[in-house]
Amino acid sequence: MGLIGLGSMGRHHARVIREVEGMELVAVADPVGDRHGVAGGLEVLADVEALIGAGIDAAMVAVPTYLHEEVALALAGAGVHALVEKPIAATAESGERVAAAFAAAGLLGAVGYVERCNPALLEMRARIEGGELGEVFQITTSRQGPFPSRIADVGVVKDLATHDVDLTAWIAQSRYAMVAGQIAHRTGREHEDMVVVTGRLENEIIVSHTVNWLSPRKVRETVATGEKGAFIANTLTGDLTFVANGDVRSEWERSSHFRGVSEGDSIRYALARREPLRVEQENFRDALWGRPAQIVSMEEGVHTLHVVEAILESAAAGRTIAL
């Protein structure tokens, strides 16, 4: 494995790659050096060409978003498999070029949406697939907290909100059909720092996302509501809770009018809490070995960018955008 980008995410990837069985970190690159001291005994190379020259099989791309296309295309051209940190690129058009290059070269390309590896969301997805929620009606997410000084090249929509779009489509197993967004600029920066989104998926599940960098309270919550109750995932703690409906749907259908839902039993599941970044790298390794693995495909990464660009278009135009 090679790693390009030794910043706030790259340093964690370096540690995890070294810990994962079957992976060996043999080369690192960052044109601004190794400010976190993660290279160990490795030489800090200057660019992606030098990284490729080290003879790597695959690479982790953790450079700023605006450099994703340039670096990923160089890797694809050299026949190097890659896991690219989210989002896949700065724009959907750019992401399409990256995805097409990896597909044309017959290479494995994946996108680093680490929230999919959160134990609470993995358990929620499995239980929904097993029918424990019945029909899913709605998925809502809240991702709020203080401003991260490390982010300078994009706003909260293309940084944080991409997580929510990706995980919602994955949990629901459906793409987005339409979105409407409202954004705000409260810190004087070029890019937005608050967004509220509503939308509908192709399978008719309605969704909403509240995302910002301006809350003193850090919140990471995903709620899936369906005919049998609601799953509530706290991805900060890795906890998943199920709250059952006190009234089952068959009773509603026999009634002459809707009687509402009462709160039933609650269950907080005991989950094995493995580090999501490690799970992500293990999935990438397994996919390289040809084993079944839950990676985020580049095509999925492009769809997420189409959705977030539609959110920004909606906010600018003041109307709902169909995808």
From TrEMBL:
User: Do you know which Pfam families this protein is assigned to?
Assistant: GFO_IDH_MocA, GFO_IDH_MocA_C3
Report a single Gene Ontology molecular function: nucleotide binding
Annotated GFO/IDH/MocA-like oxidoreductase domain ranges read: 122-231
What keywords were assigned to this record?
A: NAD
* Residue stretches making up the Gfo/Idh/MocA-like oxidoreductase N-terminal domain: 2-112
Q: Please verify whether the record's keywords include Magnesium.
A: no
Q: What is this protein called?
A: Gfo/Idh/MocA family oxidoreductase
Q: Which species is listed as the source? A: Ornithinimicrobium pratense
